[in-house]
Every structure is written in C-alpha cells, then in structure tokens.
Design goal:
The chain has 158 residues and is an all-alpha fold. The protein is built from 5 helices and no strands.
Length: 158
C-alpha cells in the first residue's frame, strides 16, 4: 500500500519597501552600512526576524481576522523574541550582565490606555494585569511610578 502525499505549495507574497538612502553620519546610515556588510542571506534573515517580531502583533490587530487571544499570544511571543535578541546582543557586545538585566521595566497600565491606531479605540478593553507582583526593593525609588531613581540613572549613564 502506497500513500500519496501531496504537498501544497505556498504562494510567495511580495514586500515592497521604499528604497532607503539615509543621510551620511546618521544612525540609519550606520545600520545600512552594517547590513550591507553582511551576506545577503544573513541580512535578509535578520530583517525578516525583526519585521515579524515588531510588526506581526500590529498587523494582526490592524488587519483583523484574529482573536484577542491570538493577538495577545503574538505580542507575548514577539516580546520574548525581542528579549532574546537583546540578550544575545549583550553577550556579543561583551556587555556586563547588569546592563542587560536593568533594562526590563514594565509599562504602567495607564501609559498605553490612550493608544488608538487609525482613528479610534477599535478594540479597547481593560488593561491586562501583570501576573507578576512587583518585588520589594531596598534601594531608593522614584516618586514617579515607572521611573527609576537618580542613583539608578547615574549607574546606567555614569
């Protein structure tokens, strides 16, 4: 008995982007130089990962067709991908672990309540509560919620 397996070919989509010609001595020019120095397949892979990580949750939200749970899952996966990329970058750059560890500061729920893409609160809902309780910290903290103390900023920027 022989099973016939049919593989459905996936159709390719075209992504038309504007041609980037950044001004010299700008951050975008430096990034362009870096990407141009890579092999084409490596540059394409990096750009693909960054585009999916950053835009997939937004695309699902704005184009519709996804449940709120799918959008939430997509956001959480994208966030984890970003954290992984930044962790790997810190290792590649030889940065001290404390530099990478101090960056992760959650947003306060009020900071994102006013965001309404394309003219309205299309999918407004109550902000999700974080399952992680904030830890008690012994160091001096700021009076402004979500802001770090002056000591923390001095340590970070010198």
């Amino acid at each position: 008995m022989r099973l016939k397996v049919t593989i459905k070919k996936k159709r390719r989509k075209s992504l038309s982007l504007p041609r980037f010609q950044p001004m010299e001595n700008t951050p975008l020019a430096l990034v362009a130089d870096y990407l141009n120095s890579l092999e084409a397949t490596e540059a394409k892979k990096l750009l693909s990962e960054m585009l999916v990580m950053y835009f997939l949750p937004r695309a699902q939200y704005n184009l519709g067709g996804c449940s709120q749970q799918e959008i939430t899952n997509s956001y959480l996966i994208a966030r984890r991908m970003a954290e992984s990329h930044f962790g790997i970058m810190a290792l590649e750059l030889g940065l001290d672990a404390s530099v990478y560890g101090c960056v992760s500061v959650p947003f306060s729920p009020g900071a994102t309540q006013g965001y309404a893409p394309q003219g309205g609160m299309q999918r407004a809902s109550s902000p999700a509560q974080s399952p992680v309780e904030p830890e008690e910290e012994d160091h001096q903290s700021s009076l402004i919620a979500g802001e770090a103390s002056g000591d923390f900023m001095d340590q970070l920027f010198g």
